[in-house]
Records
---
Amino acid sequence: MESLTLRPGILLIAPPMLEDPNFWRTVVLLCAHGEDGSFGLILNRPTTLTLREVLDVPVSYPLFMGGPVQPDTLHILHRLGDEIPEAQPVVDGVYWGGEVEALLDRLRTNPPEPDEMRFFLGYSGWAPGQLEDEYEAGGWILAPAHAANVFEDVPEKLWRTVLRRMGGDYALLANFPDDPRLN
């Protein structure tokens, strides 16, 4: 596997031994990483809420829990690229955020297909140096991200899918029991 470093476009995969309930078996897309800290969105935590329940829009896209920080904020990953001014590329074909009014206008006038946008409540954030420390202590497994990871049809299977795709010892981790004490 290629040598990976912490940078936007990397997946942070929680090892099966991580007991923090905020990140248990999560796959986080790192969207920003630099001297000011890090920002990511959990890709595999759908909620029971829809976008229509939190915004005045005619679409009912599912909402995901992006992380434990500021759960009253809304974030978006999408495939609309330059159509949304100020959108930041994260992975080939996947953009983060953008001008809010342009996003709302698109949702109200010409809603894209649900597999072109994902909405998240809250985010995963780290202070400067915090994510590096967690990674060096074995708190995360790194993998390259792909657009298919972001728009996974069955997000609850993403953790196992990514580990299996990595092969070797990582594929073995995908079968690690939820509670090894019960084995």
---
Amino acid sequence: MTAETALNGPMLPAASGTTKSIVILLHGYGADGNDLIGLAPHFARALPDTAFYSPNAPFPCEMSPFGRQWFSLAEYDPEFLRRQPETMSGALRAMAEGAAKNSAYIDRFIDTLLAEHDLPANKLALIGFSQGTMMSLQTAPRRDPALAGVVGFSGALLGDEAFASAIKTRPPVLLVHGTADPVVPIEASRQALDTLTANGFAAELHERPGLQHGIDEEGILLAMKFLQSHLG
């Protein structure tokens, strides 16, 4: 990985002027860092000593002339994520492999920010949306020492049949998902919760009735309380 491929994107400095913790926001497929940095001012009111970073994914999106992607979804079908791991398709396996390969970009970004601010790992949390949640759940459990936690909106845990053997740490996880999501079905977060709890994670899932593929006000409040608890 070279300087040219290092992650970059918008950020919001700590409101207090002193950075005591960090939140990294990982956007979804076809978006970029600007998509989630708008959440930062909401969280900053409760976390004045937290700096927020929203990096652009490393690759141009294959389906959008302007967006970015963490890995290919060219063959994605929402039905893939309604199935149990034993029926995983080749396309879903390719997604898991893409997430595993490209999590190195996020690992490098985390290491850089922790060093820049001279902070321990337990002062950094990840927030993901959709594909960004997939990347957050790929990255955080495979790091040691443990991060402060993961908030995953409308996402999934990929490659969970091999998950147990890859775990290094168990940061707390908050999942929030709309029950009417047509893009990433709610079953994906239900399966993620089952896998996480079966492997000893302190994880919870909040299902948002009628919500489609997005983040609502209640989800923001849930995330804010989670971050206050684990970063405050």
---
Amino acid sequence: MEFLKKNWSNILFIIIIILLIIPQTRKPIQVGLNQIIAFSPSKISEKNRESLNDYNWNLVDLQGQPLNFKQSIGEVAVVNLWATWCPPCIAEMPSFQKLYNEYGDKVNFYFVSSEDNGKLQLFLDKKNYDLPVYQPLSLAPEKMQSRSLPTTYVISRSGKIVVNKKGSANWNDSGFKDFLDELLEEEY
């Protein structure tokens, strides 16, 4: 008993390390930690915003219906590049689902993954998500290409990239929703 009292922090540290080594427990721990440390995404200052001049991006939804990102010209769009194996991606999905529930009829959402259709649908079904998920049929516009997952872009009606967030974030934050409301009020 004396040994436990003196070494409880070392024992706890060893248990955490062991849990992080085991694949079945590592992913949930990583997801949980990402959710704890996720903050509202930062917007790009107006002087540093780049214009998205090329909207040509062929996508297909999970039912096989093709569409082109050009349909978002003049609209506010949220584009999330993600994967089912990515703990930070999984961590931010609940906040995206809440945001989509509230803004899905006002903002164009694109959750883009290169993974297998069946794997994506299984993930959505298991988590009870109804997010609009797409697979790319061509390369994303140059200014929206990223090697990091997750990466999320928010495009204004005027085609400005106003958010370029790499890593997880809390997308259902009141500050971000206020920002989306401002973008929706902009004239095209």
---
Amino acid sequence: MTDIDARPVLRTLFVEDNAELREQIGELLAEEGLAVVDCDCAEDALRLYATQRFDLVITDVSLPQMSGIDLARAILRAQPGAWVVFLSGYALGENLSTFGPHVRALLKPFELEQLQALVEAVRASCSLRA
């Protein structure tokens, strides 16, 4: 068993309306040892979140109909300690702190090292809760 195999698998809900980005980023997430369930809209994500357990939600900010911001608010109302990562082409700045301690953002395009650091922070947090 390698160190990678010993890491806890994070169940991740990934929401991205751009099919090409959903595939590319989804592959990166899977390479980081995440069990990824993806969808293309916030409404489907909320339905999935209501019926399955996820350790991490990664969402694009700009989605059709319900935004990623509104999706995060709904998830955080249901589970205040949830981990949420926003993917955005816009800096969210100080607004991010209003969501709580487990909400982060990655500015598109992001470096693989940034994604890896976030995944490890979530893993560490989830290990402490276990």
